[in-house]
């Protein structure tokens, strides 16, 4: 909570500084080819232990040396990239979440690498690739990991309370009520007004489409019917007290996961790593299932998180940079290291059937087919077009849903607020928005 | 304006005489209680850090908040070994930024403050007023302009990028000027001049020692400010080998939503990063106590 508030403040400060400062056009940073043909590349990333993968590249490629700088993840790296690009010295490569790509592209931070990236296109599922093309002919990054959403639950608590795994959202609501009746101190799960990425994934599953581009004109529909349906569904559960309403990723949330106050978590493929770190006491007690569906018999999910490797427009050695990015995310040796050392669920198709993913994660030792079912679920993730100001939509989400929870107003109103703020910000920044 | 500023007595905050008990005076309970509450308010978070640093990742959120755990050494080893001991590198960086930055800043503040207090030259009032205005500008708002300036000369992502902006401290200069006006008598300077000492020698041999307690204060202020500074190094540095502790620990806390925050590593890292500050205060507090007693105003 603290860190998120801080992040928001930081973004404001950085943005204010950027718009106040004058533009600098000195792009002659010293990252050119060195004498002797050796190329130096700088790379910003936050994935844990990603230095192991970079080391492997450097050992095998003496001509192209990559220097890694570990950064803070998520939105922080984006503000920092914008600042560095403005000053004319961004790194050659950077790890970027999918939803931040349009922001960086519209600020001319990232290069179009369609030509150099063409050979690896087939290594990725179409839905994933769409996220790095932004629905155009250009390619702005190589996909690294994906975050298909799944349903995690405490198998032991479900047994004890006589619950079955909900297959639809109706059943999910019923299960939530049953939990309250049978164990008044427990909740099935919580609705977090602090994690817009999570809500966006839920909306994707229901078929939401927030942004679209038609020529030069953007269509923005954050408050489309699917999103409102999802918002009001969760709003209803919060209003009747069937689920908790505390934010996720706080010490209190960790405690609730540890002591079994919260017994389920609609999350993404990377959840085992988070649970292992934040709720170590519950090892082996969890199980994973596909997300509950909006209609019985359907088979859909959304995505939460996932990142890609972008090549910056200011870099002097784009070809070498793309070569490294393609190797890191598509080469079996590299993806194996990413899986093993960084606990990343790779976006590349072949890597998803890597021998390393035959065994379930240690935290889910009882669920032998964890990754086999994960792969099947990953195939059902819907694609999504991100707009140029996801950060504004996300910040508004936190404000509007936070207010809706404390003020007990319908969640669909919060979605309308998101729509208004997003459109207003795009128009202010000179985007054409269809009305 | 300037006359007003110089006439502010600084002796009050440094209390040269030490505690003196007046006969027949009873303990003042209310102020004591207020101060005690203040002390608890400040020390409670520290107590939390100390207790939490000794807990394993799983007991951190499950056991009583202030109950210590038994994993202090294990956490210490994990933190020490993380990323090949990168934490110690961050700690050294912090010491470098704060130590060198603090000393340079104290020296520059002393020199400027002394000059502003003891010399009459055209523009003196303007310079001092601009400096006073500078005290009001929060350093946070300057981080981005400073970044763009240093990027212009290609100095971002170097140690200088963090050191240079910290050397000039308007508040330090302001403090040093007032201190110089109060602690360095004109008669002493005139005597030195009559003896034929050069201005540089007068500053170095006469004025500087007399201003030392004030400069120690400036040094401490600046040291703590740099030690705790986050935004400037966060913006300036991209190479994690040059990070100070603040930025380094932040990267461990924020590894994206797909990776758990390394709470135990960060908490023990915070605990250890407090130790140099405590040590510094204990070491330097005697300078405050000596204060004017050590100056040559006695005669």
UniProtKB/TrEMBL annotation, chain B:
PROSITE patterns, per database record: ABC_TM1 (PS50928)
Organism listed in the record: Actinoplanes auranticolor
GO cellular component entries: plasma membrane
Domain ABC transmembrane type-1 intervals: 91-284
Membrane topology per record: Multi-pass membrane protein
Primary location: membrane
Annotated TM spans: 28-51, 95-114, 126-148, 168-185, 206-227, 261-284
Disulfide bond among keywords: no
Name of protein: Sugar ABC transporter permease
Region (Disordered): 1-22
